[in-house]
Amino acid sequence: MKVLSVNVGRPRIVAHTDAPGGATGIGKRPVDGPVRVLDPGPKGTGGSGLVGDAVCDLRHHGGSDQAVYAFGREELDVWERETGRPLPNGTFGENLTTSGVDVNGARIGERWRIGPDLVLEVASSRIPCRTFAGHLGEKGWVKRFTRAAAPGAYLRVIAPGEIRAGDPVEIVHRPGHDVTVRMEFQASTTRRELLPRLLAARDALHPETLRAALKYVGQGHGELGSAAG
Fold first, then answer.
1. pTM tops 0.85
2. Nearest-CA neighbor of 182 among 98, 84, 89, 75?
3. pLDDT averaged per 10 residues in sequence order, the chain, 229 residues
4. Calpha distance 198→135 (Å, rounded)
5. What pLDDT was estimated at residue 23?
6. What pLDDT shows up at residue 213?
7. E strands along 54-152, which residues?
8. Which of 122, 103, 100, 102 has the alpha carbon at shortest distance from 111?
9. Distance in angstroms (rounded) separating the CA atoms of residues 14 and 18
10. Quick one: pLDDT at residue 224?
11. Strands 12-13, 23-24: parallel, antiparallel or unpaired by DSSP?
C-alpha cells in the first residue's frame, strides 16, 4: 500500500461553481518533492491540510475533518474505462492518489501512517457537488458517481508530517465497528435507513454526519441500540 502521487491545486475561475468569486482548487496536479501536511483548523476558517493546496469555498470544503482527500488509483482506472478518457492522478480533486489501499472499505476512525511521521484518520466520504460535476463535464455525473458508491475518503491530521510520492501507507489502528467509508456515503445519500448504524463510529464521524444520524434516530426511524450492534 502506498501513495502514488501527492496532488495540490491552485485557484482558478470557472463557471460551474457556487463558490464565492467563482474560484475552485479542484483541478489538482502531482507535485515533486515533499509536502507538509498539518491540521488546517476548524471548517469555515481552515482550508486544506496540505501546504500550498487551495480550498476556495470554505463554507463546504476544508477544515480539520476534511483536511486531506484520498482516492484510489484503482477506482480512477474503473472510471477511465467507464468514461473512455484518461484520468490522470489528481483529476477527482484528490490530494493523495493511492495504490493498494482499500479506501472505500476503510473504517471511519481508521488511522494510517504515511511516511515516517504523518498519521491521518479516516473521517468521512466525499459527497459529489456541482463543482465536481462541472469539472468532469460528464453527463449525469453526480448520479453516476453516487450510484458507484466508491467516493474516496476525507481524512483528519492526527500527527503532522511530510509526505511524498512513493511513501508507504500503514494501517496503525482499525476500529472494531463495521462502519466503512462506503456505508457512511450510502447512509448520507441513497440509503438513509443506514444512518442509525453509523452511530457505532460515534465520535469518529464527521460532526455533520453525527448530527444527521442522531436526528434520524430522534425522529423515530431507528434505535440507538441497533447502531451499536
1. yes
2. 75
3. 94 63 74 95 90 79 93 98 97 97 98 97 94 89 97 98 97 98 98 97 96 89 39
4. 31
5. 56
6. 97
7. 68-72, 96-99, 111-114, 118-125
8. 122
9. 10
10. 39
11. antiparallel
CB burial of 32-64 (b: ≥16 within 10 Å; e: otherwise) equals eeebebeebeebeebbbbbeebbbbbbeebbbb
- Distance, CA of 187 to CA of 124 (rounded, Å): 11
Nearest to 163 by CA among 26, 40, 38, 17: 38
Please list the alpha-helical segments (H only) found in the chain: 73-83, 130-136, 141-148, 181-188, 195-198, 207-216, 224-227
Residues in CB range of 104: below 8 A, 6 or more apart: 72, 75, 125, 149, 150, 151, 152, 153, 180, 181, 182, 185
Predicted pLDDT of residue 60: 73
